Amino acid sequence: MTDRQHLRLVEAFPELAADIVALLYAEDENHPLADTVEHLLFHSVCSCSATCTNLLTAPRGSSGCWVVQLERNGEDVIWLSLDPTATVITDIEVLDGRDLGPAGRWPG
User: Fold this and answer.
1) End-to-end C-alpha distance for the chain, whole angstroms
2) 107, 47 in Cβ contact below 8 A?
3) What confidence tier does 45 reach under pLDDT thresholds 50, 70, 90?
4) Domain contains 57
């Protein structure tokens, strides 16, 4: 699939994208990743298990070892995996139990 065939994350999961931006800005009002969220592509959901809550925003295998843990009320709610340069969000693990709707059940 080419980039033109992928929805943007903000189209597939508008509330989640807005939450990520708000949480990044709450962490740092100039957080460099916040401005990248509107450009992220939604590649697929992770297919490692039926209960996995990872959304891929880059091709499989793009992640490096960097993770940004976003918290609400002292609890991790979203983890952002980053590429090896720590500048691109490659996948999003949704930990807060939200229903991701039909797009969240789309096979990868």
Assistant:
1) 12
2) yes
3) confident
4) yes
Number of domains in the chain: 1
Average pLDDT over residues 52-76: 91
Residue 26, in any domain of the structure: yes
Q: What is the pLDDT of residue 17?
A: 97
Task: Please give the Cα distance from 16 to 35 (Å, whole number).
Answer: 15
Amino acid at 67: V
Which tens digits make up the pLDDT trace of 27-40?
999 999 999 999 99
CA atoms of 108 and 106, how far apart (whole Å): 6
Alpha carbon of 41 to those of 26, 55, 97: distances in Å? Answer: 23, 10, 22
Structural domain for 91, as ranges: 3-96
102 domain residue, yes or no: no
Q: Is residue 17 part of a domain?
A: yes
HSE toward the beta carbon, residue 6, CA cutoff 13 A: 20
18-48 as b/e: b if 16+ CB within 10 A: ebbbebbeeeeeebebbebbeebbbbbbbee
